[in-house]
Structure formats: structure tokens, C-alpha cells
Amino acid sequence: MRTISADVARRTFLAAQGFADPRPAGAVTRRHLGRVLDRVKLLQLDSVNVAVRAHYMPIFSRLGAYPFDLLDSAAWEPDGRRPRLLAETWAHEASLVPVQDWRLLGHETLPRRWWKHYGPLLEKHPSLAGDIRDVVAESGPVGAGAIERALAPGGRAGTVRPRPPGATWWERSEVKRVCEFLFAVGELAVGTRRHFERRYDLPERVIPPEILGAPAPDPADAARELVGRSASALGIATASDLRDYYRLGPERTRTAIAELVDAGRLEEVAVRGWDRTAYRDPAARTPRAVPGRALLCPFDPLVWERDRTERIFGFRYRIEIYVPEPKREYGYYVFPFLLDGRLAGRVDLKADRGAGVLRVPGAFAEPGSPEPASRVAGELAGELATMASWLGLDGVEVGERGDLATPLRAQLR
């Protein structure tokens, strides 16, 4: 087993994630989007919209400003000229994945403990799943609320509990819960979204027939392919890193890693400073340097696994959305700032669409960063200005919190 330095591991990871590729000099095209998808393999979905939806941001981080409909058409608005490239499924979490990977991510491959909670609900309403599929077949793509209204007058679903008036976003109706179960096990697909609401459709109207009609892969074969994709996306990784990318089971991951090592598709290596064996994708490259800058949303695959982020970058990162405001260390929705291959700072961001500005309530330099604060502030100001323009906002306004706030404000004047 050969030994490599932590610095080599870091640059290998950054290159695997696409940060060693130059941003396009001109307009961003579907070809550029495909290049990013080849690198990251999936885009995590999340409902938080305080700055920008999570799935849009990793593309911006790697390519710079691009038209939102480039991703929308690839995922939810295909046509004869622009076929569907992405489909929704459960992967790392709810995610967009290349349509050709949809079969690999069936519920047999990714057992989810929460699915067992649907058993009593389906027993209580034995006809509900079939009734939902009938409505979707007739009206899809259609949201859960419209399905519930379609079922209510005839009473076909029996005593289905509707979503109570004034309920929070998390208080889902029984119809919504069964829709989510059917989506999770592949009996429904997401045809499109409107205002981020899932609109369910039949899989045969969403997934290309050559993919939908292909035999379901053996779970062990699928796990081996997914671990290989994880290794490609990470470049170099521990067993837990490889498992986390698609949230595979531990035993299935261990078996897949052993088989890939035996086949020469993974190389065992030791990384100085890491306390466990790592696995390198033999096709991974290690550039001498990774120049450039990028803002990273909390759900970017470069930073979503917090222990890995700390191991590779020495950057302790926690999302503080659910922390009471007086106890937050950095802010509500904080973006790490990548500069020349290192995480050099972080900013709390909010897109104030009413005022037309990108607000930065707090800006913080990372302790121990080799870059002077003046350079970090200058590069960060440029990236924030680019992001504000991409979001259709008129400018950037910086608050008072953090040691980067004053120099950042000066750079943006």
C-alpha cells in the first residue's frame, strides 16, 4: 500500500469534483452542464430558498453564471430538442441523478428504514395506492394537493385524513405520504415541479423506455456500480465516504469495495494524517494546483459530509438553520468560500428579492488561512457580485458580523 500526503488527497478530491476545470469563457451550454454532472454524479434537492435552491448552486460554483432553464430543461422541462438528462430519486438524499442511473437507485439497492412506517397507513387504506396511481395516470403530472381533491368527492380512498388547515410544511396528508412512498419505490416518478412542488407522473412518461424497460440490476451489482461512481466523484475516499455518497448499507459497501479492489477499479492507499485506509480511483488526476474561487452551498457534495470536510480541509462546518438565532456561531445559511483549493472563509447569505440585494449578514475569514484577509475579501467580493447578478439582484449589502465584514464592504464600494 503506497502512502500519499494529505495535500495530494485534497487536490485529488477537488479535481474529481470539477474544481480544476476552467470555467467557460463564453455562454454556458448543455455540454458544460453534462461535464459537471459527469463529475458530481448527483445534485441534492432541498427546500430552503433563503439564497437559492440547493440544486442550482453546485453548477454555479463550478461554471459561474448560467441560465436557470439550462438545469430546469434537463430535469423537468424536456422537449424534442432537449431530452431529459436528469430524474428525481432517492440517492444521497432526495436528488437529481442522470436518467441512466435511475435503475441503479431502486429501493432494493438503497433500503430506507423510514419506508417501514408506511405499512400501517397502507393497511388502513388498502385501495389508496391504486387510487393515487389512477389519478396520476389520468391527470399527471399532478401535485399531491390536486390528487387529494380528486379523491375526496367520490370517497374512493375511504377515510383519508386531509392536510389540516394551517398545517406546517412538514404536516403531510395521508395522500402526500403515500405519494412519497410510491415515488420512493419507483411506482411514481416526478414529471416536473411548479414552485418547487413535486408533480407526480407515471414512470413510463418520465423515464426513457430503454432505461425503464431494462431488467432491474442485481442489488450487489448495483451497489458495486454506485461505489465506483462514488469513487469517481471523490477521487480518493475512505469506506465511510464511499458509502455516504449514495447512502448505501455498510455490509453491501464493504463487499463492493473488496470486489472493486480485486478488479483493479480501486486502489488501497494510506493518507498521512488519516486514521483509516483510503481508496483511490485509478483514473483520478492530481493537479499541481487548483486555482480559482467558488461559493459552496451547504448541500454541495464538496462539503455535505461534515467529517470529511474537516478531515480534508481542516474546516469545521455545521448548518445552523435549526439553532436558535442567539446561539448561532456564523449564521442561518452559511456558504463556505473556496479560494485556490482551500476553504478560506464563510459567509451567511440571504437573497432579499424584495429589496433586490444579496445580503451578507456575516462574513468570516478562516483562522490559519495562508491568504491575507485583504485578498480573501477581494476575491469574495467578486464572487458575491457575480452571484448577485446571476440571481437577478442589483447588488450586495454586507452586515456587521465577522472579521471579514469591514474589508468585504470596502471591496464592494
Please characterize this protein's 3D structure.
With 413 residues, this protein is of the alpha+beta class. The protein has helices at residues 6-16, 30-40, 57-63, 68-75, 118-124, 128-139, 144-151, 174-184, 209-212, 219-234, 239-246, 250-262, 306-313, 373-390, 405-412, and strands at 2-4, 43-44, 86-90, 94-98, 189-194, 197-201, 236-238, 267-271, 278-280, 293-295, 334-339, 342-352, 357-365, 395-401. A hairpin with a 3-residue loop joins strand 3 (86-90) and strand 4 (94-98). Helix 11 crosses helix 12 (250-262). The longest helix has 18 residues, at 373-390. The model is unreliable at 155-159 and 166-171 (pLDDT under 50).
Q: Mind telling me the C-alpha Rg?
A: 23 Å
Average pLDDT, rounded to a whole number, is: 92
End-to-end gap: 53 Å
Order of strands across the widest beta sheet? 10-11-12-13-14
Percentage beta strand:
15-25%
Shape: globular
Q: Topology as H/E string?
A: EHHEHHEEHHHHEEHHEHHEEEHEEEHEH
Structural class: alpha+beta
The total count of helices amounts to: 15
Number of strands: 14
Low-confidence stretches: 155-159, 166-171
Helix content: 25-40%
Q: What oligomerization state is this entry in?
A: single chain
What's the short version?
Helix content is 36%, strand content 18%. The chain has 15 helices and 14 strands.
Record keyword descriptors for this entry.
single chain, about 425 residues, four-stranded mixed sheet, 15 helices
